[in-house]
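Record type: ASSEMBLY
Status: queued
Input:
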Amino acid sequence: MKCCNFLFFGDVVGRPGRSFLGKHLPLLKEKYSPDFVFLNGENATGGFGLNVAIAKELKDMGVHGITLGNHTWNQRGFWEEIDSLDYVCRPANFPEECPGRTHLIFEHQSEKLALINTVGRAFSNAVLDCPFKVMERKVASLREQGVKNFIVDFHAEATAEKYTFGWFCSKLDVSCVVGTHTHVQTADERLLDQKMAFISDLGMCGSYNSILGFQPDPIIEKTLHGKPCRFEVGNGPAMLNGVCVRMDLENHCALSIERIQMVEM
Ligand SMILES: [Fe+2]
Ligand SMILES: [Fe+2]
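Status: finished
Output:
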């Protein structure tokens, strides 16, 4: 049987997330023997977006594919730079005029895998195409090109939309859907329909004593008194959230999903 293991980490938030991941990735690689490492990098640069320097830092760490989300364009100049990064894909349901790859293709044991990123529409005011229809079209067109294994990061706020999208993808014979965006890991990892690895949110890699990776005090001030503030990336001990998924590349399904959570002591 042709199998493949991969690690997928939740939104990396600024330097604490990057450093902690960089420190522990060698150990995690030893433990899980992943063929690929993926992560969501929409908060990797200073908490908001991604740029070329940080994308390269993550790649040098041993990351094979980076997905994004609603913060994709936060870093000045990234619109012009994203096409130069062949290991980064932006949400496929952004308007088609946007630059950037809408999927990444990997190969393992002569089988092709596609990594796709879409964003949800619930509680979002972004300009977005329907993630369901985009996914259906994308899977069909990639399948025509000989790709039969699909891994999806669904970057979304609402749990119900994530489950709806998950079940929808399982009917398309997608092998894995991981949710991102909320920065809080859920404990609902499972094989959906007994064949598709699913978790509604991977969580984040970032500051542990924080609000979703950011310093609590300014956010409390803003919430209580409306005081304008900059969201600053948190500090102190860090944490790391993700999953390890094992896939059967011949039957185009998942065999297992295991949640990973580490907190710096
Ligand atoms: Fe995020
Ligand atoms: Fe997000």
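Annotation: DSSP finds six helices and 13 strands in the chain.
Annotation: The longest helix spans residues 14-32.
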